[in-house]
Design goal:
There is one protein chain. It is built from 10 helices and 15 strands. The chain is an alpha+beta fold. Among the domains are: 217 residues, Beta-Lactamase (2-Layer Sandwich), CATH 3.30.450; 138 residues, Histidine kinase-like ATPase, C-terminal domain (Heat Shock Protein 90), CATH 3.30.565.10. Helix 6 packs antiparallel against helix 7, helix 7 runs parallel beside helix 10 and helix 8 packs across helix 9.
Length: 530
């Protein structure tokens, strides 16, 4: 359905319902995404803290190893050329990269330490003993687990596992080759992680950070740290002010969605129901457009409903007026017929026969005249009914209509000019009814010539029908299209000819109007072009 000219764009009901359902469906997904994103942020924060702490300890560890190089400290694997730091680089940051959403970053519980093949050297044990007080003081604040390993992966400092080997653990093995490695491990023993973790899953994982200690491009040991990320609920409580604001934002968004639904669906629907009730009570002001339409469907529905209601109201008024006029027009001849028949019957029943033969003939003539008037009126009513029927792809050429018109009035001068080969959106029969009534009306008002001039206007054909008959008075100019209005009632006029012409033109999307003129009588017809 094409939209009305100048009408603003409105969303459809389907679009609004789909948007609302999509928004409601997206809320849980947004919540899950938020918690996952927030949990990842906590993991990144924990990894960053472990990187800083392990890097500081690695620097202290490397300083102690360098001080004991002359005492026979044995270094581990040599760094490959591509892993060696460039001497010109002053900044070599290590960025947190663990991602809980990536399955590859989540490993099983950390394997237990294994017995070492050979104990750590005395030099490394001394370094571990020296670092232990620093570890203990740091652990009080950071709550991280610290383990200092020698170049073979044997624990030389830490609360537990001193003297055991961690070289078989993946991240430690990578660090022993001179590369930093972090891992995210679950705390549930040897059970596969569920597809969707609980929102408090931050307490169910451990972040492990293995920082290599490099001296002279060789691995001197590993600083191995671990820590559980902060509980997401602790952070939520700490940031409760922000989340209260977020809650108010959600409530505000919900209210906005409700207002949108109210304005686009509920409010127009209530107003349309109210209009229907007012129209049923006969309120003519209810045909005015709605204040708000909301959606395209409601706009189309309200326009269609109000147009239909207004047309039905006009139709009802027309029928009431038409019935009143018809009753009045039928009453006079019927009364005359009844009176004449009663007098004739009384005369026949009377023994004296008080009516002469001439009087009886007069009464019979009056009855026949009134009967002919009723027949003419009946014929006009049939024509009016046909005129108001909906057209069905009708079309004809004006030349054929003019030919039929001249055949119907062979004794009259009918002059036709203009685009007579043009097709109009009306059947030959109905177009002939229009022109015949205009011609007959002109002849009955003493017209000697009838002139028709057609002009092609693209979407329509304008025809001017003029005659040189009696002019129409100013008092009658606005009444000539009214049903049953006639100035020839005494000569058999029904007053329905021009009403039929107007009905035919209107039912086909055309129009007729009386042109202003002081002498001739001229009508302008607008036929729809075919």
């Amino acid at each position: 359905m094409t939209s009305r000219a100048g009408e603003k764009w409105r969303p459809s009901v389907g679009m609004i319902i789909f948007a609302a359902l999509a928004a409601v469906a997206a809320l849980p997904l947004v919540g899950l995404f938020f918690f996952r994103l927030y949990d990842n942020q906590l993991i990144h924060q924990t990894q960053a803290e472990l990187i800083v702490q392990s890097r500081v300890l690695a620097a202290v560890y490397a300083r102690d190893v360098e001080a004991r190089l002359n005492a026979g400290v044995v270094l581990g694997a040599e760094l490959p050329p591509e892993a060696r730091p460039v001497s010109d680089d002053k900044m070599t940051p290590i960025r947190p990269a663990l991602d809980l959403a990536a399955g590859a970053d989540l490993l099983r519980r950390r394997p237990d330490a294994l017995p070492a093949g050979a104990p750590a050297s005395q030099a490394y044990l001394e370094i571990g003993a020296r670092l232990m007080p620093i570890i203990l003081e740091t652990q009080k604040v950071t709550l991280a687990g610290f383990r200092i390993l020698d170049p073979r992966g044997v624990v030389i400092a830490g609360r537990n596992e001193v003297g055991l080997s961690l070289a078989h653990i993946e991240e430690v093995a990578t660090a022993l080759q001179g590369q930093y490695r972090a891992a995210l491990r679950i705390r549930v023993p040897d059970k596969p992680p569920p597809p969707i973790y609980s929102i408090s899953r931050g307490v169910g994982v451990h972040v492990f950070s293995a920082m290599p200690v490099v001296v002279n491009n060789r691995v001197a040991g590993v600083v191995y740290l671990s820590r559980t990320p902060s509980n997401i609920f602790d952070h939520l409580y700490q940031e409760r002010g922000k989340f209260i604001l977020a809650g108010f934002a959600v409530i505000f968004a919900t209210v906005i969605i409700g207002l949108v639904f109210s304005r686009t669906i509920t409010r127009p629907m209530r107003e349309l129901v109210d209009r229907a009730a007012r129209i049923s009570r006969g309120d003519r002001d209810a045909f005015q457009p709605l204040a708000h339409y909301g959606t395209r469907e409601f706009s189309q529905l309200s326009h269609s409903f109000l147009d239909m209601a207004e047309q039905l109201s006009r139709r009802s008024d027309y029928i009431a007026t038409f019935s009143s006029h018809l009753t009045h027009e039928l009453k006079s001849p019927l009364t005359s017929i009844k009176g004449a028949a009663e007098l004739l019957l009384d005369s026949l029943q009377s023994k004296t026969g008080n009516l002469t033969l001439m009087e009886q003939k007069t009464f019979v003539s009056n009855i026949l005249g009134d009967t002919e008037r009723l027949e003419a009126m009946t014929q006009r009513l049939r024509e009016l009914a046909r005129a108001e029927t909906t057209p069905q792809n009708e079309h004809t050429e004006l030349s054929q209509v003019i030919s039929g018109l001249k055949s119907r009035f062979p004794t009259r001068a009918i002059d036709a000019t203009g685009c007579l080969e043009r097709s109009i959106g009306m059947s030959n029969e109905k177009a002939l009814i229009v022109l015949s009534h205009l011609t007959d009306n002109a002849i009955r008002h003493n017209a000697g010539n009838v002139r028709l001039a057609a002009v092609d206007e693209g979407a329509s054909v304008k025809m001017t029908v003029s005659n040189d008959g009696d002019p129409i008075s100013e008092a009658n100019r606005e009444k000539i299209f009214d049903a049953f209005f006639t100035t020839r009632r005494d000569t058999g006029g029904t007053g329905m000819g021009l009403a039929i012409v107007q009905a035919v033109m209107a039912s086909h999307g055309g129009s007729i109007r009386l042109l202003p003129s002081d002498k001739d009588v001229a009508f302008e017809l607008q036929f729809p072009a075919a």
